[in-house]
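Question thread 4412

I'm putting together a teaching handout and wanted feedback from people who do this every day. The idea is simple: show students a protein as raw sequence, then show them the structure tokens that encode its fold, then repeat with a second protein so they can compare. Below is the first pair exactly as I plan to print it.
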Amino acid sequence: MLKDFLSAKGLWKAEQLKYHFGVLPDIEAKAKMLPNTLQAPLDIVTPEQHPISMVPERRKSNYWFDAGIGFGSLFHELMALVIQAEDSEQALHQISLKYRLDEGQIHKARALVQQTVAHPELSFLYAGDHQVYVERSIITPSGVLRPDRINMTAPNKAVVLDYKTGVAKVQDQDQITGYGQGLIAMGIEVEAHLIVYLREDPIVVNKI
């Protein structure tokens, strides 16, 4: 077909292997503005004008572990995984991975957990002998209550536990007795209300 085409054009030569047709046009690259494109000026802002600093990689773990509110959230999440004492290391491993705790923070958290589960007034709660409810909501006419931990020591008997990572407040007792009232309304006898203050060294347990 190509030979017939070239012969018809009078261009066929048996010894010629390459043929060229036409001329490539010069293409000028032009920037195109899309419709409705906003052209905004570029402003250079110096650190002095707007002092923004990069957050260090470890800031996240420092926030969770050292700040009052952050530490409280972390420890509550950690202890929610510790149903019995033998769960401590696995719970600590999960939390340390999630919040990227360094070795010093892991050591501090482990010490607090060990103090809690081994405390003379608390150890029986982590022995694995009870049915345990962690951060379970109690619906009452006055609202929803959410105690940190309830140990059912018998079918209709319970111990209520609340962790506190801040300083002791008068309303702490009102809060935990409110949890107890919610259980009493359900027909459950509350044997003890225990508030654990973790900012103290060693930890302090207030029994009500």
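The second pair follows. I'd like the answer to focus on this one:
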Amino acid sequence: MESSGTVGSGRGTSVVVSFACPDEATGISTAALTRLLDASERARLTRIVSAAVSRQFLVAHALLRVSLSRHLAIPPAEWRFARSHTGRPVISGPVEPTSLSFSLTHTSGLVMCAVSDDHTVGIDAERIDAEANFALLVPQVLSPHEASLWTAADVSSRAKRFHQLWALKESLLKAAGLGLRMAPSRISFELAEGSPPSAERLPEELGSVDDWSFFVSEPTPAHACALAVKAPSFDFARVEWREVSTEELVESALGRFDEVVLAGAAHASVNPTNSRVADRCL
């Protein structure tokens, strides 16, 4: 699932991005993590045919629950989710929705979750595929401005640049609650090496380009990640990057969440480009 939603009131003012490697999940750990899911999530899990995608879904949803519980003292298995009228995932219990914003993404080899106390967030991760059908994808995903710059770029950098732009657009659309109901080619970004990305043009439905801040990272050399925050000139130094192991998620599933929260403090503020996940999720 790739999603964003809002609920509750938490602690702190930064955005916390948690990430994990779904491929670490074994038969024993998947059985434990399934205990965190509600009946609806379990039903969706059983309908997934691919074992790899099933692990992504399971680890991503367990990660979301544990991440939300770090902000509000609620056991991870007690969270309940519903869909808004636009299809955006929202918290339906056990607390009344207020201001806690969350976003979830999973792709081959990586799951990520962003949670913020006071800003709407969207996150997306894409596995970089140098063999993608760019002749088909570029007109569908990139704006004419982006496509012209992409075509002029060095061939060796095109795959990474394309997936960064794709992740930026999905992170923004998820934060706005639109998903892929808006053609990504209607959104245009400036993406220059060494500078933070910025929106060059946004459709009216997304507001002003000055309403948003964006960040790109490479959690592993094989992945492009983008984070959208609905706040002007957001200081991305306030983002905490938290690496979460499958063992931590299993401990939460087994009811030792308080111990996991305390131990998890040691994983805060890791460098997303220099982490153990970077070695394990390739």
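Top answer:
Good format. For the second protein you could add a caption like this: Residues 3-280 form a domain with the Ribosomal Protein L22; Chain A fold (CATH 3.90.470.20). The CA atoms of residues 69 and 76 lie 6 Å apart.
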